[in-house]
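Try this one yourself first.
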């Protein structure tokens, strides 16, 4: 039986100045948003009806609020509702961790609708650009999860299994790195190849947004087979995890968007 690889000696804290502590997880959010902003700005220049720099700058504010609020509330509702029901003040203890991608996505979509309606921007033309570069943030977030030694995988005998500090003495799948690869690198390459080099696809507004939803949900559901389910939840119906359950409506929404993009019935 493989004894696994030792967990790398990387502190979750990137740096600190006095009482001011900056963690890698926070930097992942910051650089993910900045990278997305920069890449969307570059893509925006290629569009005929481009957004102004001020509009893009304003949307960043919407995005930050939606991601933080939605991510936290999603975790509270989907993953640890009973605990936060008894300890409501802990909802605001962000330093304790606990963010949900699906919660952040729901809030982000809501913010996107509101922003585009207010600014009179073609919704799906804009969402396609964001969807194409969003994997950068996903990649950084999963790398930060690995550094934190959280959201690790199930026990395994594979040679690359890792002994996580909080995962006992047995080797486990580094599922955070699997997610960083599929949801980050692979998804980024696929979506950007279509957006930049296949004009027919780029001009079907909503297609890339739908494809992002479909592929992310498929990748995530697959990797959940290797990821340790949340201790407080365990498995549903003996096999499914909360992550897999939440991916189902996401996948169906993606299929609907792709269908509407081909029918030309999407709004914007």
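Now uncover the answer:
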């Amino acid at each position: 039986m493989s004894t696994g690889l030792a967990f790398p000696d990387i502190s979750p804290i990137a740096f600190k100045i006095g009482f001011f502590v900056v963690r890698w997880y926070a930097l992942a959010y910051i650089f993910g948003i900045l990278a997305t902003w920069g890449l969307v700005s570059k893509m925006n220049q290629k569009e005929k009806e481009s957004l102004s720099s001020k509009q893009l700058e304003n949307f960043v504010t919407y995005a930050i609020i939606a991601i933080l609020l939605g991510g936290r509330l999603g975790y509270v509702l989907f993953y640890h509702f009973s605990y936060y029901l008894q300890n409501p003040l802990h909802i605001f203890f962000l330093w304790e961790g606990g963010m949900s991608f699906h919660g952040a996505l729901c809030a982000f979509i809501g913010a996107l609708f509101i922003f585009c309606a207010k600014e009179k921007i073609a919704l799906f033309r804009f969402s396609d650009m964001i969807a194409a570069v969003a994997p950068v943030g996903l990649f950084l977030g999963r790398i930060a999860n690995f550094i934190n030694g959280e959201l690790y995988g199930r026990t395994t005998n594979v040679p690359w299994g890792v002994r996580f500090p909080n995962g006992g003495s047995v080797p486990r799948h580094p599922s955070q790195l699997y997610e960083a690869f599929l949801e980050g690198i692979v998804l980024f390459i696929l979506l950007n190849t279509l957006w930049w080099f296949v004009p027919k696809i780029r001009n079907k507004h909503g297609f890339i947004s739908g494809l992002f939803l479909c592929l992310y949900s498929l990748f995530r559901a697959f990797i959940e087979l290797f990821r340790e389910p949340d201790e407080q939840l365990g498995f549903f119906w003996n096999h499914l995890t909360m992550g897999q359950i939440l991916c189902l409506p996401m996948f169906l929404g993606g299929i609907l968007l792709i269908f509407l993009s081909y029918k030309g019935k999407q709004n914007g």
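Discussion: Residues 5-263 form one domain. The chain is about 60% helix and 5% strand.
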